[in-house]
Amino acid sequence: METLIIIVAGILVTVAVYLLLSKNVIRVILGTAVLTHAVHLLIMAMGGFKGDSVPIVSQKETSFVDALPQALILTSIVISFAVTAFFLVLAYQTYKYTKTDDLSEMRGVDHE
Amino acid sequence: MLTLNMAIFLPFLASLLIPFIYRRHFKIHIGWFVLIVPVILFITLITYLPQIKQGDSFTETLNWIPTFNINLTSYIDGLSLIFGLLITGIGALVVFYSIFYLDFSENLGHFYTYLLLFMGSMLGVVFSDHMMILYAFWELTSISSFLLIAFWYQRKGSRYGAKKSLLITVFGGLGMLIGFLMLYQITGTFSIRETFELIIPLKEHILFTPALILILLGAFTKSAQFPFHIWLPDAMEAPTPVSAYLHSATMVKAGIYIVARFTPIFGGDAVWFYAVSITGLITLFWGAFSAIRETDLKALLAYSTISQLGLVMSLFGVSSLSLHPTITINEVLYTQAAFAALFHLVNHSTFKGALFMVVGILDFKIGTRDIRRLGGLMLFMPISFSIALIGSFSMAGLPPFNGFLSKEMFFQAMLSVNEFDFFSLNTIGVLFPIIAWIASVFTFIYSMIIVFKTFLGKPKEKKLSQAKEASFGMLLAPSILAIFIFLIFIFPNVLADNILKPAVFNIYPNLENNYFEPIKAWHGFNTELFMTMGVVVIGTVIFAFYRRWNIVYKLFPKFLSFDALYNNSLIFFDRLAKNTTSKYMTGYLRHYFQYVFITFTLLVGFTLFKLNAFSFSLTGDEPIGIFEWILAITIIIAGISMIITSSRLTAIVINGYIGFTIALFFVLFRAPDLALTQVVIETVTTALFLLALYFLPRWEEKRAPVRERRQNFIIAASVGLVFTLVALSVKSGRLFTSISSFFEDSDEKAGAANIVNTILGDFRAFDTMLEVIVLFIAGIGVFTLIKANKKRGAHNLEDK
Hints:
- The structure holds two protein chains of two kinds.
- Chain A has a single domain, classed as Orthogonal Bundle (Helix Hairpins).
- The longest helix of chain A is centred in the last third of the chain and has 31 residues, at 68-98.
- Chain A has three helices and no strands.
- By secondary structure, chain A is mainly alpha-helical.
- By secondary structure, chain B is an all-alpha fold.
- Chain B has 33 helices and two strands.
- Chain B has helices at 4-24, 31-53, 78-101, 108-127, 131-149, 156-187, 192-198, 208-222, 231-234, 240-249, 254-266, 270-291, 297-319, 332-366, 382-396, 402-416, 425-428, 431-455, 472-490, 492-507, 527-544, 546-549, 551-554, 562-584, 589-610, 626-644, 648-668, 672-695, 706-732, 746-750, 755-763, 765-787, 790-798, and strands at 58-65, 70-76.
- Chain B has a two-stranded antiparallel sheet with strand order 1-2.
- Chain B is elongated, with a radius of gyration of 36 Å.
- The model of chain B is unreliable at 793-800 (pLDDT under 50).
- Classes of the chains: A mainly alpha, B mainly alpha.
- The interface between A and B is large, with 87 and 100 residues.
């Protein structure tokens, strides 16, 4: 299963990079969101999927799945949410001022 | 009793205190408090004198970074004591003088902070034994000099001069750093004193000459030697006390100190001898020659300082001959040159300090330093006139002043050069006294210009007749120096026996013969005396035809000067940097992403290929259930359709779909916390995206050109490929066992059953706290952006 998840993550990375390279603000932000998804899958796959039960200690002795990747991803989900929210507001304000959502038109003038 | 290390750090400590004192004692000039520092230090250094005279030296080590062998080793011997006394002695006089020169309207807090910073770092330079520490202090003197030159930063000239001095001296300083590192490579020690012994069998080392040249580069830039002298005249934009202190008495002598200090290491080498003596002589000549052209008194003094520094430098060059293996060290011939160099060094500080202070008085009282506008001030400012007369005559090498003595010794040393029959000196050595003599003629002329054009003749402007003598306080410091000029002439051997001779023994550690000719003002009619007489006669003649002589300078076109070279290269590099930067900093986000991705692909892909690191095996994989297949395939389809779709709504919904599918994956991976969080966050994110859609325009139908899309696709596919290959290799070839089992005892270690939560809330609680801070910052960012005022922020973009 690890191999499958890695391939899925690889395809998501391709999608994300393609979106990041486009000119539209929203597509770029979507690119970052997709990239986050890909990374989450990667971290999960790196930890492996062995173990029988959820990582909660209980009476009966079993083997747990790897808890460390889960902790890392939990942090990542929250941070990526904050970043996405910030990007969206930035895009909104930029649009309000520049009247465009095309990044190639937003290029600043040389200050001299 | 102050220890040496404390002595170095006392000025730094005092400069830290200044902001506090400056506010509290408004009514009293802060200079009075600052004055205490150099006075204490001067007295402290004087107490070392009796033992230093016996040939003792003192070391004090404070371990700083012992693992890297970096320790604060302070070392005081005769040579560093001379410089230490100059730094603190002239320092005290300059601070005293500045109390009257700078009034309350100036930013005195800044001024004295910088001045103390300089004093401390300069003491650090001369008392450090460790080359790296020395280097650090060395650069600190450059920085404090920069700050002091730019003290009146409102003036364009100040900023220009400050930048120029910093660029040139730091450039040389970096060369010196590399030179020190090379020496370390040769000997394995950073200690200057240890290097003396260790270097002897290693003089054939391939790095020896490069190290020598680089260290000299540092010394020459700092001491304004030709052709690096161009920064010093521009540094005269600094307040006059600074010019008197840094740019004539102390900082510019740091290069001379380095040459003297490293003579035991490099002395006797032909490259060293030629580099030091020839550069010194050229500087001596060129400085004196250029000084006559100047009409600004301070610029004139700057060129004269350059010239005098060249004189001392050339003497040290000649003195290095006595370390040549064929010369027995006890022959007095060339060691006398080092003696003369140190003597002139002290004399120069006295007469040049006095002259700078007088010029400062003129500037302060009359408001100009231009000799074309001055004249006839003798009657109105008799004391200033006397001081200027004493200083100038001493500089010209006339009796009865100290400059006469050291000038004669200089001639003597230069005459002795062609007695040396190595380095083909017996032929070209004749040039040494000739150049020295010609330069002395020019020195005589500009010294006369200072006195006669300023104080004699008729007042050229009306306001000059109303000029009044400066206050007692302002005259005190230059008067003390003038008295010294005279006293040293009468009792030269007091200075020589107590201070100069111990230093000569530090330059030649193996010197045994302690006989030096006592300095005598009268030594019969010999060549040196005739040379001086010639200087006076020829100098007077040229001075009389001063106006005609000026034509000579028109022969040098301005665009060929080193100043023009400096300015043009600055402009050139500015343009080069701007052009290069604007080539890749295009302002397009797409380009920046391309740099990142292409670099990633090439670097990681190449490494993977080169190290043959790719490995793949399916062993150890968990079996895949039908449910997982379905989820995986739908995610892939969703991803591809996200690229294709031209509807923004569809794209956002698909993003949401991928997010929720991943939440389902988390369920399958037995990660309930993740699944819950992902569902919540994905919901909110999708809502946010939809909200943004409300404000942002629809996607236009026009799509990027095919070429661009193809390019994007190739980059995206290669990044995806490299990513997948690396991930598969990592999965298939695990090098370490997982550390996760550590956290599985969460119940015992932290008293909680949920391992993931315990990691976040207990084991790695600090990380979580910082994460909260990130969230908080993002929140502030969002809030500020929403509140941002359009009128305040936007107009920059509108001015097209």
